[in-house]
């Protein structure tokens, strides 16, 4: 079954702890932490101290998504006992192998994300090294944007390459995911979906999580 990582970017920040407990109770699997620096993406979200305030608030591991320039400088500050993975953008890392090694040196899973206009082939040289490939289905920066369907073929290509080479990384799809996309994403090879607006909008978190996980 596909796993769901609700993005707290779309949550009510005035009651983050409560919202995280609500997604856990509803059956979500991870907490997606969207970190934005106002340089790599045209928005600023929050940093490690907001993430750390959620340690111990639920049993769900953190799935950290760094949408920042020079991520190597900040990776260490996102490592906690609750951090399962840290993902950097291929477009932000001129020395991607080194950055992947740096993430792994902290004992957490290393992920690489690609923007909608970046081809799957940009990851060919690192697929043997990563634990997670994050395929962006929107241009990163904001929650609530429309899903870009052209990325479905890219997910399929990455999934086929995983099969052909016997790799074991997970494939996560981030941005604009709605309940009607889930079956096609799963069929293309996705293991994890991120849900921002689809989880937190409208206030009924339990129903929203169930709609994403069970249709
Ligand atoms: C986009 C972020 C996503 C996004 C998820 O920059 O990385 O995680 O906010 O929110 P929705 O599902 O609303 O696009
Ligand atoms: Zn994200």
Structure notes:
- There is one protein chain.
- The chain has 215 residues and is α/β, with parallel strands linked by helices.
- Helices cover 28% and strands 20% of the residues.
- The chain contains seven helices and eight strands.
- It has helices at residues 16-26, 48-52, 96-104, 151-165, 182-188, 197-200, 205-214; strands at 3-6, 31-36, 62-67, 83-89, 109-114, 132-136, 170-174, 192-195.
- Strands 1-8-7-6-5-4-3-2 form an eight-stranded parallel sheet.
- Strand 6, helix 4 (151-165) and strand 7 form a beta-alpha-beta unit.
- Helix 4 (151-165) packs parallel to helix 5.
- The longest helix is centred in the C-terminal third of the chain and has 15 residues, at 151-165.
- The radius of gyration is 16 Å and the shape is globular.
- The structure holds D-xylitol-5-phosphate and zinc ion.
- Residues 7, 32, 34, 65, 174, 194 line the site of zinc ion.
In terms of topology, how is this protein built?
Elements: E1 3-6, H1 16-26, E2 31-36, H2 48-52, E3 62-67, E4 83-89, H3 96-104, E5 109-114, E6 132-136, H4 151-165, E7 170-174, H5 182-188, E8 192-195, H6 197-200, H7 205-214
Parallel strand pairs: 1-8, 2-3, 3-4, 4-5, 5-6, 6-7, 7-8
Brief sketch in words of this structure:
The chain is of the alpha/beta class.
Structural class: alpha/beta
Please state how the strands of the largest beta sheet are arranged side by side: 1-8-7-6-5-4-3-2
Radius of gyration: 16 Å
The portion of residues assigned to helices is 25-40%
SSE run: EHEHEEHEEHEHEHH
Total beta strand runs:
8
Strand content: 15-25%
- Largest sheet descriptor: 8 strands, parallel
Parts with pLDDT < 50 across at least 5 consecutive residues:
none
Shape: globular
């Amino acid at each position: 079954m596909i796993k769901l990582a609700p993005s707290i970017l779309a949550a009510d920040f005035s009651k983050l702890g409560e919202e995280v407990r609500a997604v856990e109770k509803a059956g979500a699997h991870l907490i997606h932490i969207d970190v934005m620096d106002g340089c790599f993406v045209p928005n600023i979200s929050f940093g490690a101290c907001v993430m750390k305030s959620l340690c111990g608030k639920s049993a769900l591991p953190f799935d950290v998504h760094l949408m920042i320039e020079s991520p190597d400088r900040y990776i260490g500050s996102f490592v906690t006992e609750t951090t399962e993975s840290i993902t950097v953008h291929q477009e932000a890392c001129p020395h991607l192998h080194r950055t992947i090694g740096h993430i792994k040196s902290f004992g957490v899973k290393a992920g690489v994300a690609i923007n909608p206009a970046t081809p799957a082939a940009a990851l060919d040289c690192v697929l043997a090294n990563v634990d997670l490939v994050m395929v962006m289905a929107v241009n990163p920066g904001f929650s609530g944007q429309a899903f870009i369907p052209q990325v479905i073929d890219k997910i399929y290509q990455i999934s086929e390459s995983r099969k052909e080479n016997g790799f074991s990384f997970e494939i996560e799809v981030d941005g604009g995911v709605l309940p009607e996309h889930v079956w096609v994403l799963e069929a293309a090879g996705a293991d994890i979906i991120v849900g921002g607006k689809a989880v937190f909008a409208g206030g009924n978190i339990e129903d929203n999580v169930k709609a994403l996980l069970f249709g």
